[in-house]
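TA notes, week 10

Several of you asked for a full example with nothing omitted. So below is the full record: structure tokens for the whole chain, then the designed sequence directly under it. When grading your own attempts, check the secondary structure regions first.
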């Protein structure tokens, strides 16, 4: 993960408003459970590419990792609005809605 993060760092340094390396670094940081860094990258990616559903999806996953279900729901709903055909986002959103509905009980 460290080499991938360094590559993202270089790409962001060269083009700080290009959202793809921000999204990728967000994903890497999320997988490393560095949620503050992941959220910072996702927020920047959303700012530069508000039309891109993947950045909202990643933001939703970060909020899920942080256990902030309300913010996760908002981000995943935005992803689903932008791209209703994204099966991963739709499935994650449906699972989150069920989790909220049941109060976190299986």
């Amino acid at each position: 993960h460290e080499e991938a993060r360094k590559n993202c760092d270089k790409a962001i340094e060269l083009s700080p408003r290009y959202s793809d390396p921000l999204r990728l670094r967000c994903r890497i940081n999320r997988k490393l459970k560095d949620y503050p860094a992941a959220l910072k990258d996702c927020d920047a990616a959303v700012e530069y590419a508000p039309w891109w559903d993947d950045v909202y999806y990643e933001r939703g996953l970060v909020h899920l990792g942080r256990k902030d279900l309300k913010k996760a729901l908002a981000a995943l709903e935005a992803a689903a609005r932008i791209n209703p055909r994204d099966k991963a986002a739709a499935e994650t959103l449906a699972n989150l809605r069920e989790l909220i509905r049941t109060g976190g009980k299986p």
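The chain has six helices and no strands. Use that as a sanity check on your answer.
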